[in-house]
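FORM 7B - TANDEM STRUCTURE REPORT

SECTION 1: FIRST PROTEIN
SEQUENCE AND TOKENS:
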Amino acid sequence: MTGVAAQQPRSPGPPWPYRIATLGVSAVVMFLLPDALAAAAQRPVEAIFWLAITSISSLMSVASVPKLDVEASLRTPVSIASVMVLDPLTALLVNLLALVSIRELRPGVSRWKIVYNHVQIGLAAYGAAIVLDGRSLGVVAGTLLAVPLFDVANIVALTIHIWLNRQAPLRQAIQYAAMPFPLFATNYVFIGLLALLMVVLYQMVSPWSIVLLAVPLWLGYAALRSAKAASDRADELAERVRELEVLHDLGTALLSSRDPAHAAEIALPALREISGAEDPADVVLALDGDLPEHLDRRPVPGTRALVGLASELDIERIAEVDTACNSVGLALQRLTVEEELRASQRAEAELAEGILAEGSAARSRVAQRVHDDVLPYLAAAAIQAENVITAVGIGNVELTTKLASIVRDAVADGISALREVLDDLQRQTIVPGDLLPSVRRAAEQARVEHGLDVELDADEFAGGLSHPVEILLTETVTGLLSNVVRHAHASRVTIRLRTVGSMAVAEVCDDGIGFDPDGVGAGHHGLALMRQRAALAKGEFAVNSRPGEGTAIRLEVPLRTASPLPVLTGPATTVPADDLPLSPVPA
């Protein structure tokens, strides 16, 4: 029941092997054609009658393999009946000239395929008639034997057609042409019964009684269409389920991917299966977005990766390919986030080590100041107190008074020095909303104690910072200002604080001696700590300086952060001046 339907050519013409095969079978038919015409001339009415009903039955067809343009029709039982009632040469001529498909009458159809269709069906009928001619098998046995003979010849011709047209490899072409056994057995019975009924009516009742089969044939055609539609729907659902299973398995497998290359290795087989590609080169996944020009590009959302598909691929459901691309994109984004998280954790660990070291150094500096600035006064007071006791013992009032004054002054000086240490410690505590007051105090101290011209520009600062960001900005700005005082040899410093959208921006610029940012020597950790803390806050820390041209340092961080940032402990300068040889650029 199968025939090759003529189709619109997708290329300049069929391949040359197909053309050669067509010419070969056509040569055989041309050799037999004179005898066939002579045989038909002896029974012209009968030949014309069978030519008509064979052509009419060919119009009742449905597509059996749509993507290869192969169809099934009710012509087969009519052709088999013609084999039984006509001589081999007349059967050849009738099936050669009968219409194969209504599409062959339309313009723009491949003439090579039309010729191949006609000659292969004509030769199949001629071969079956030759085998059955002259045998005393009876009507029933002969008709039932004609079915497999004609079908096998038709299947061989269809396989050659698909293979030589390069529509499928040979093995797959055989699978397309040969139906499964249960379907073949059902068709065998159906075709055999119809053909047998036609032979009986034609030979035992009247040739015109075959017209009575018009209604059963039409019902058979309707049943064929319904069965084909149900089969196509079932195949479509099965294909859909298979694709969903592939997508599910892909998503599950991508959860275990270790890196982008591993994710690509997992995704490629699924993409090839969904797209129906048989050649691995037809589907390419490029993580860097670099694809050959001849491939059609499908983006992988959220990444630079691209999926390349050969333009000749006949992809029925491109949405499934896009779904697979989305799954790959989610996996690649997950891997990127995980890598960023690991890098952030490493940076935070390194920063924590630096903060612990700085905290230890700060405590050592406080202890050193107490030892150097406070204890000497207390020790002097203790010594002079002993002298007071001695003076009191000998009754020397003048000496006692003098020594008591010395003790009083030593205690007062010690209290003053201790107060300075406590003030330094107090300035380390930053309460919410204390950013601008803390910066103003540091600027005023630089003016009074060091004669530095400090300009604070905070007109565009709108606030709205989280407390961790306030701490980060306060410590960074005051620390940089302290380093300008100690190292920059500057006369003017400009501090700018402003809010730009969702970002807080701080700039410290001076007109000092500048330095080489790439030449900071070993042991100076302040700059690195500032940069790491800015990175943990999802911000940016930039240094612009050259020797002799001043320095400009810019810190930009989001207004709010979800988690507290590590806080440096130490004196008011936060980052020790001797650790960061910075001199923040003239305004």
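SECTION 2: SECOND PROTEIN
SEQUENCE AND TOKENS:
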Amino acid sequence: MMTESDKDIVLEVKGLSTWFETRHEVIKAVDDVSLTLRHGKTLCVVGESGSGKSVTARSILNMIPKPGRIVGGHIILHNSSLGWSKGGPVDLARLDPKGRQIRGVRGREIAMIFQEPMSSLSPVHTIGQQIIEAIRLHRRVSHAEARAHAIAMLAQVKIPRPEQSIDSYPFEFSGGMRQRAMTAMALVCEPKLLIADEPTTALDVTTQAEILDLMKNLQSLYGMALMFITHDMGVVAEIADDVAVMHQGRVVEQGPVDQIFFAPRHPYTQKLLGSVLALEKRSRRALKAPRQEGGEIILEVENLGMRFAGRKRLFGGATGQEVQALDAVRFSLRRGEALGIVGESGSGKTTLGRCILRILEPTSGRILFKSRTKDAVDLAALPMPAVKPFWQEMRMIFQDPFSSLNPRMTVLQIIGEPLRNYGVASGAEIEDRVARLMQRVGLPPEMMRRYPHAFSGGQRQRIGIARAIALRPQLIVADEATSALDVSLRAQVLDLLLDIGHELDLSYIFISHDISVIRYMCDRVAVMHRGRIVEIGETEEVCENPQHPYTRSLISAIPKPDPRQRGRAGRIRYEPEGAAGS
């Protein structure tokens, strides 16, 4: 007999094992995992990269890339509306991964939203064409009816002017708009279960908050079960009813969200939560060596402006409007200081960092840089050949540790390259220096002849840090240097940067959309909006007592890693002056 509680079950995963068998080894990506998804409830699956979260999600839809395969367990879909199932339970693990039956499940009974919508939306078809195709695949309706339904769905996910937006291509949408379009496509056939695989990881906090609000509202409207995969414990605290914690392919702990946060039993869960809570306050390392007031200014940015010319349309036509990426930006940086730059995507953070290093050429303003041996020089006024010697004093750490390292070079070659290029060392001396640098960032020197693919994401970022400090620079611009890392690695890498900063008397410009990272690391913070700095001050003061309405909006959008605080602090939405009538 089924109890009332059992009738709410949409899907049961029982003892699921998905393995990847290679010539040399068997990787147990998912090993004996059991989960239960219920109508109207949200199960958050959390864990580090490589823990098996995404493979579990793909296994549910029986869409595992080769050489992976389901080797054991059951995936039971209850109360299916598929004709051939006669309303009874269906074991999805037993269906042909390429067969008609599982294709009928995908999109209709169970839908999935992926982390990066640009890689899962076709770039050569309009948003409307893709949503209409999803509708007509599962429903017998005319093209006109499907189009009308698609427009209604775009309106429901709050895409502006849906009647016009339906004929736009994905590249014409912002990241948040693309994620909304993906959500519309996933929900257009009203599935019983929505699987969202890291759907907000690449979004800034305000856009993330909007997407989370949207999903909660749509879940309430449709009563669907939601399986939300994330490594952000703030998001978990905000939306989860239940939590499953994964580690090395297994579920090590699961239960109600309150229990997981306040009475975690497994050591891995305790470690994960400890890493999250550490980022809620200033690092002890930063407090041990506070910035000296009145110290020497090494960088002064005055009225910096940057305009991007309008792009020419494909196949001719009018040129698009110019974009004012930076507008009269001014700030100073002292020796040994860490300055955070925070703001939404498109606010000008990365453009500012690249202009300071003259990777991009600003259109106005001055960048006064004082090296250890020379008077202050305006980098903005120098021709490019004259800028290059200053790159020995100013280095950059990039966001993605995967794409910023040459896969064809060994770690020895990667870290040794700036030493060789600037004539600092040669021959055996380079190997000695690289060995010391690897030890300094916590990597075994004996691994220097390996290639980047042999290292984890956290190790690759350490390689990038070793390369950046190889020339003992004065200034490092770190552009989202920890956003691609798991939360447990984030604090480790930030602590490493702080230690190196104190040791070398380094100054940092730390660009991030994550205010918790800025609070942990930085002495001061500058808040950017639409190319301008709208507020700048001591980090703690700005975070606890923001003055500008945009800063208040930004801070109100950050999910707190405490489910008992859910909904306590209302969202503040920022409306720039003149926006209402535009």
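SECTION 3: OBSERVATIONS ON SECOND PROTEIN
The mean pLDDT is 87.
The chain has three domains: 10-109+192-278, 119-190, 296-309+320-546.

SECTION 4: SIGNATURE
Preparer initials: ____
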